[in-house]
Amino acid sequence: MNLLPMTYFIEVTKQRGISKAAESLQITQQTLSSHIAALEKELDCRLFVRRPKFRLTAEGELFLEYCEKFVGLDKSMREEFREMTGEIAGIVRVGISQTRSLILMPELITSFQKEYPRVKIYLSELANDELLSRIGDDELDIIIGDVSGERPDLETCELYREKMAVIIPKKPEYAPLAKALQETGDLRHLASWPMITNTRNDIVGRYISQVLLQNHIPPNIAAMSDIAGTCLRLCAEGVGVYLCPDLYIRYYRELEDKCITVPLPYSYAIHMAMRKTEKRAAAVERFAACLKEYEIT
Q1: For 162, phi and psi rounded to 5 degrees?
Q2: Is residue 24 within 8 Å of 122, Cβ to Cβ?
Q3: Range with lowest mean pLDDT among 134-138, 213-217, 239-243
Q4: Average model confidence (pLDDT) across the chain
Q5: What's the rounded Cα separation, in Å, for the pair 179 and 215?
Q6: What CATH class is the domain 84-160+271-293?
Q7: Which of 95, 192, 225, 279 falls 20 to 30 Å from 174 in CA-CA distance?
Q8: How many CB atoms lie within 10 A of CB 90?
Q9: Which of 257, 221, 213 is nearest to 240 (CA)?
């Protein structure tokens, strides 16, 4: 049996239907339906029911188990042969937030692919909770984010710490706040000022909420976004102050002249995590090693 239809069937089960799977595979629905029909004819059974809601039949569940085994073995075999010839190739699926991806990945991937040109890096830029879910479902090889909770299925290490700062608009009306924070470092001065924050889906948003709670500051939220660039631009325009990692404002250098940065004595860890396994693809191992060696300042 050809492995290609098996790969297609796995994608149909992931996407819960033909149309989304065809879009993901970048083939026509007619082509995909033909492959599935040929499988059902060869196996002499129905593999899934389309209506009223997509579900695998008992035969489909069994066939999916074998598909995942066969496709996984084929992938492992090819990787081992490449390793025997000294060639590192393959795909590394990396999950990371959009802002960290913008800051870290371009330079890192460029450097990595100079040494390993046959390794492709597929980025999934998602919120932290979604990253944890997808690596748990084996849809990602590596994630970069907050993995501080108990996850016995993951192998983790701390990559770096993000140091927090208050970003204040360089506007006359905000001058008293900037002066007070620079002189005292007391966050309670923020209590009466409008704030911009990330949502709690984001690591930064959750950490900001904790810091404000610890300092008994009820947030006066003027705007909220998961995109750091949006928050920083709102801050630069005077919409409010923004608490975020100081590396964010250093990345958006065009905004530095429009804002005042006051460092804070708070930081949190950013981790790299991979699923625990007896054998891992060489391309994944090499990219993980590159991440650990990469100097993030």
Answers
A1: -95, 120
A2: no
A3: 134-138
A4: 90
A5: 19
A6: alpha beta
A7: 225
A8: 20
A9: 221
DSSP labels, 28-78: -HHHHHHHHHHHHHHHTS--EE-SSS-EE-HHHHHHHHHHHHHHHHHHHHH
Q: In CATH, what is the architecture of 3-69?
A: Orthogonal Bundle (1.10)
| Share of the chain residues as helix, strand and coil, in percent rounded to the nearest 5 | 50, 25, 25
Token pair for 251: 């990345």
Domain boundaries, the chain: 3-69, 84-160+271-293, 161-269
CB-based contact 272:132 (threshold 8 Å): no
Residue 263 to residue 246: CA distance in whole angstroms: 7
- Nearest Cα to 275, choosing from 160, 137, 169? 137
Please state whether the peptide bond connecting residue 52 to the residue before it is cis, i.e. omega within 30 degrees of 0.
yes
Query: How many Å apart are CA 236 and CA 140, to the nearest integer?
Result: 36
The band of 65, judged by pLDDT with boundaries at 50, 70 and 90, is very high
Backbone angles phi, psi at 37, to 5 degrees: -60, -40
Q: Fold identical between 84-160+271-293 and 161-269?
A: yes
Distance CA 86, CA 105 (A): 26
- pLDDT, one tens digit per residue, over 4-25 is 999 999 999 999 889 999 988 8
Instruction: Report the alpha-carbon distance of residue 147 to residue 145 in Å, rounded.
Output: 6
pLDDT range class, residue 79, cuts 50, 70, 90: confident
